[in-house]
Amino acid sequence: MKLNRREFLKSGGVACGAAALSTGLSTLVAQNGSVAEAAGTPPEYEIYAIKYSDPADRKLANYLYGKGWDENIQINYYVWAIKGNDGFIVVDTGIGTTRARERKHKGYVNPVDVLARIGVNGSNVSKVIITHMHYDHIGGMEMFPKAFPKATFYLQKREYDFWTKHPVAKRGPFDRDEVGIKATADLEGTDRLVLICGDQKIAPGIEVLLCAGHTIALQSVAVNTAKGTAIVASDAFHLQRAFREDLTTTIILNMIDSLETYDKLKAKATSIDLIFGGHDVILANNYPKVAEDITQLV
């Protein structure tokens, strides 16, 4: 089904409301443990940044609105692993092998293989949270459903509907990964794809947060840790500097949404130092290294 812009905007809230009603039971199941969590202490998790490609040279102005037109920087490409007592939750899927080959990504390693360096495998991943559907976050769906056969995939419904149903999403400014998008769409209607409407706890101590701005419905992940509530913000901002200076990325859909997302992240996290953006080399360089190309953030 294709929707024009007006129909899409009008139907968004209705669709989410209907989805919530029709999946009420599964939503309760997805939040299992929340009653126990209210009565006691939620589990604590560790968070790891997984770099799967060599640093790429970019203009600072791409990621720091209004600044850095003549300044070059490097960015990294990451997925993240959240480690609990019962296994792992993976955040994002990275770039798929097909797109990496086409774009000649330097030093690219299949994210599945890099995750394996800290013991992430098909037997211990229960959930994969997809923050948004840009190619470097959705492309790995080319490999992930097979690599992690026990995993359920979580995505905001509004984000999914835009990329799979809205005709504008196929136009020039939107850099699509057709392989990753199709692999995700192939799961629609199965219990392996959960489409979420807004903020939702999906496990004890794990909550996804609607953080629009960079895309129509990006979601970040709030995690209970030994240091308090930490947030894998993904591309809610690309550079830590941008977040601290209250400047959005240039790669943006809605600046007002993005700045309101900044406020939301700051209010949710225990400390600004526990909020981690999507592409900063700091994540790989300034935290304890636990394996090749893997650092522990919390």
Question: Could you say how many structural domains there are in total?
Answer: 1
**Tell me about the biggest sheet?**
8 strands, mixed
On the 0 to 100 scale, the average pLDDT is: 91
Radius of gyration: 18 Å
Quaternary structure of the protein: single chain
Helices, by number, come to: 12
Order of helices and strands: HHHEEEHHEHHEHHEEEEEHHEHEE
What percentage of residues falls in helices of 4 or more residues?
25-40%
Strand order of the largest sheet: 6-5-4-3-2-1-13-12
Q: Give the C-level CATH assignment.
A: Alpha Beta
What fold name stands as the CATH topology?
Metallo-beta-lactamase, Chain A
Using the alpha-carbon principal axes, give the shape.
globular
Strand content: 25-35%
**Any idea what the CATH architecture is?**
4-Layer Sandwich
Total beta-strand segments: 13
CATH superfamily: Ribonuclease Z/Hydroxyacylglutathione hydrolase-like
User: By helix and strand content, what is the structural category?
Assistant: alpha/beta
List low-pLDDT spans: 20-36
| Distance N to C terminus | 43 Å
